[in-house]
Amino acid sequence: MGKGKLAKFADMERYENVFQYPYSVVDQVPFEMKGRWHEDYFHNDNPIVLELGCGKGEYTVGLAQLYPDMNFIGVDIKGSRMWTGATLALEQELKNVAFLRTNIEVIERFFTDGEVQEIWLTFSDPQIKKVSKRLTGTAFLERYRKFLADNGTVHLKTDSNFLFTYTTHVVSHNNLPLLFRTEDLYHTDGLDDETRRILSIRTYYENMWIERGLNIRYMKFGLPKTCSLEEPDVEIPVDEYRSYKRTKHTSRDTSK
Question: Keyword set for this entry (predicted)?
Answer without folding.
Answer: Methyltransferase, S-adenosyl-L-methionine, Transferase, tRNA processing
